[in-house]
Amino acid sequence: MNELERLKNIIKSFSVSNKTLAVAESCTGGYISHMITNISGASNVFDMGIVCYSNQSKIQLLNVEAESIESYGSVSKEVAKQLAFNIRNISHTDIGVGITGIAGPTGGTKQKPVGLVYIGFSTNEKTDVYKYEFKADRISFKKLVLEKVLDYLVELGK
Amino acid sequence: MNELERLKNIIKSFSVSNKTLAVAESCTGGYISHMITNISGASNVFDMGIVCYSNQSKIQLLNVEAESIESYGSVSKEVAKQLAFNIRNISHTDIGVGITGIAGPTGGTKQKPVGLVYIGFSTNEKTDVYKYEFKADRISFKKLVLEKVLDYLVELGK
């Protein structure tokens, strides 16, 4: 099944389950929200997206703790968890997605290389964060993150 | 010049002028932020994007007046103006972009047809809103809005 079909099925599944969704994304820069909103009917499911590119915007809009960014870095499991949990609470939706990573080509370090990404999913039951490392250019990186997001949303939309 | 080259030039121009940018977009659903952040170096210029898809998110995140939405509708000059002005103030950036429209295929009326879009640009000097009507499918609509946004950003980045 291609990406568009998967997205359509997810929007349909969320609609049928009467579930709603919000996304806080850093390194994907709006791509996840963009792809979801390409689907007609997305407005029944998708409430808001926040592209929290700067650290300040993560703190200001998503209530990420400044201490967490200082201690763990903005690309960390802790920050992804707060992004996912907080966007769900801010938007009063059922599912919150939080994404932070390094799209590259610059900004990588030995410990946190280009392509590293943490993706968090928050429901009223739990908030889980998954770690990936994608060796890809800046634009392919976004697409690879989307694929993973869709893998989880298929399950969460049921 | 193709779109990617135009985007690169705009990011470069903003960087050289030491200007920053934030985007509040409704109908384009994250596409404008996504395309800007495809450019390496965007993080020096682009601070945040808000995809305020629901009316509630426009009120809650962008401080759009509920009375304006009631009086003029969420797709209106007044709401675009508030989106542009308020995202600039919230983000403390130099340029705020606010976009509200009807991507379709549903949601249009005789007075506000599918393809109608208001695009606002706010600087510390003024906030202007431009009205367009694009006869296009949902995805082409986003691209046509981006083209117009870039036309104005070329000038504003100088």
Oligomer status: homodimer
Range of strand content of chain A: 15-25%
Q: What is the count of β-strands of chain A? A: 5
Assigned CATH architecture of chain A: Alpha-Beta Complex
Total domain count of chain A: 1
Name the shape of chain A in a single word: globular
- Rg over alpha carbons of chain A: 15 Å
Determine and state the CATH class of chain A. Alpha Beta
Q: Biggest sheet of chain A, open or closed, and with what strands and sense? A: 5 strands, mixed
Contiguous helical run count of chain A: 6
**Termini of chain A, distance in Å?**
18 Å
CATH topology of chain A: Maf protein
CATH superfamily of chain A: CinA-like
Class by SSE composition of chain A: alpha/beta
User: Secondary-structure element sequence of chain A?
Assistant: HEHEHHHEEEH
Give, in spatial order, the strands making up the sheet with the most strands of chain A.
Answer: 2-1-3-4-5
Give the low-confidence spans of chain A: none
Mean pLDDT of chain A: 96
Largest interface: A-B, 37 and 37 residues
Q: What percent of the residues of chain A sit in helical stretches (DSSP H or I)?
A: 40-55%
Describe this structure in words.
Two copies of one chain form a homodimer. Chain A is of the alpha/beta class and 158 residues long. Chain A has one domain: Alpha-Beta Complex (Maf protein), CATH 3.90.950. Chain A is 45% helix and 21% strand. A five-stranded mixed beta sheet of chain A has the order 2-1-3-4-5. Chains A and B meet through helix 2, strand 2, helix 3 and helix 6 of A and helix 2, strand 2, helix 3 and helix 6 of B. Strand 2 (46-52) of chain A pairs antiparallel with strand 2 (46-52) of chain B, so a sheet runs across the interface.
